[in-house]
Amino acid sequence: MEQSRNIVKRGEIYYADLSPVVGSEQGGMRPVLIVQNDIGNRYSPTVIAAAITSQQNKAKLPTHIELRARSAGLSRDSIVLLEQIRTLDKRRLRERMGILDQSQMARIDSAIAVSFGLTDPNASTALL
After folding, report:
1. What average pLDDT does the segment 22-50 reach?
2. Is pLDDT at 128 greater than 90 in this prediction?
3. CA 71, CA 74: separation in Å to the nearest integer?
4. Other C-beta atoms within 10 Å of 25: how many?
5. In which domain, by residue range, is 18 found?
6. Region of poorest pLDDT, from 27-31, 57-61, 63-67, 69-73
7. How many domains does the chain have?
8. Rounded distance, CA 3 to CA 88, Å?
9. What does the alpha-carbon distance between residue 9 and residue 22 come to, in Å, rounded to a whole number?
10. Residue 74 counted as domain residue
11. 8, 35, 63, 91: least buried by Cβ within 10 Å?
């Protein structure tokens, strides 16, 4: 991704090159959701992103958020894998595909809290 292009924003979906990988990590060219805050996105050479898969046969975990293709700028209905969050150099990012709205990001935030152990997946309140 060229530095002169628009600044990456939280909630945007990009194609990214996630290879090479080890073991069960998601890899290859695939969509990712930017989950890092916009201050970090503006000044850091890296971003924090969650992998997205179009494989609907993945186990339904509390860290999985389903996305409808049309509302997310994707070619197929997909799942954001919030247990597959990683730091990426911005040079791994390719074209921007879409952006999630506030209600979708609220669901993402809840799944991140579960993934990071900030909330009990079986409770409606945070463990803070």
Report:
1. 91
2. no
3. 8
4. 12
5. 12-115
6. 57-61
7. 1
8. 15
9. 28
10. yes
11. 91
